[in-house]
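Something for you to look into today, if you have time. Could you write out one complete protein record for me, on any chain you like? Leave the record below and I will have a look.
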Amino acid sequence: EVQLVESGGGLVQPGGSLRLSCAAFGFTFSSSAMGWFRQAPGKEREFVGGISWSGSITYYADSVKGRFDISRDNAKNMVYLQMNSLKSEDTAVYYCNAEVSYRTYWGQGTQVNVSS
């Protein structure tokens, strides 16, 4: 069974940093590209960034480019989202995402609140 479990969310002040983690289970993680999405209150879920199966290619939404960094550890079946220079508009529930055998899987999400 495919499972994605996010962690690391919390409350952070504007300008601060936070690192989210996503643990993956039940599929060949090292062969799968992974993504991060977020959903703010009253808004649709939006793409944040993604990483190729090897980790050699990363891509980001314009809104987070230069501030967020995605990495992965295929030995641990983990993907990470390092968030720096956080802004109030980054407040959202953050989800990791995987496409496995033409199906899309989501974790339960982790809440990030950016507030002073």
